[in-house]
Amino acid sequence: MSNVQCLLCNKRHWALMCPELPSNKMRVKTPDLEEKRDVTLSNHCAAEEVLLQALQVNINARGKTRRVRALFDSGSQRSYLLTKIAHEMNLKPIEMKNIIHSVFGGSTLQKQDHRVYEITLQNVNRGFSFDIQVLDQPIICGKIPRINKGIWEKELKGKNITLTDHGRGCPDIELLIGADFCGHLFSGNIWTLECGLVAYETKLGWLIMGKVPGLKQEDTSAHLGTSLLIKKNSSVADLWKMETLGIMDPVETKSKEEMKKNAVGGSTL
């Protein structure tokens, strides 16, 4: 046994017993982690050809009110508030949660501690309010463009649809309303505009989404929408490592596959 060395990990055990073998990995169970795992499937393209469901809302907590830019995201199991906003409003957490995030592409991140806050959502006219719980997050997502002037304005006006998130630029998303609450906020009214955009009414205001007509995509790279995909202390180089993205060098992949075959077919006890 002293001379045994695994072909896969170079440790002192038989290759058939190596935990790196796929067949052995399937036997490992982590039920305690599964229960705390959240899924975030969101992704968006950096090009301004597609609009996501953003709007302006008021948040109220501890007697303070603030207008924020919010994003409806049914691909996220939880709702999130920028940590900066929570600090500026002097919010007090009601509890702490330790969560493992499962993200777009099937990857998982390390456990992350989140403060949980209770806030009240209000539409800009303050005619509706709804209480939700949010987790704090330093950065929610990348640049998400607002709707600008275009041929859709006349049609929206004719249908008496008023948008709260419009103009130039890409202000930060400060609140993400996930699947835990967004289903309670849709009114059911939907309009498909002649230009192809789709307007959804919520109890907090109207959302608009879809491909913007007449704009060509200039950036074909897709960027994952939520910051849950980004570890706070990760460098740009770490985030874009090919291994992290699931892209392996063909030679390296072939070598590992051959080693596994050899371990299965060539090792004897």
Automatic annotation (TrEMBL):
Q: Which InterPro entries match?
A: DUF1758, Peptidase_aspartic_dom_sf
**Any idea where the DUF1758 domain is?**
68-209
Pfam families, A to Z: DUF1758 (PF05585)
Please give the superkingdom of this protein's source.
Eukaryota
Name-wise, this protein is Histone H3.3
Q: Which organism is it from?
A: Trichonephila inaurata madagascariensis
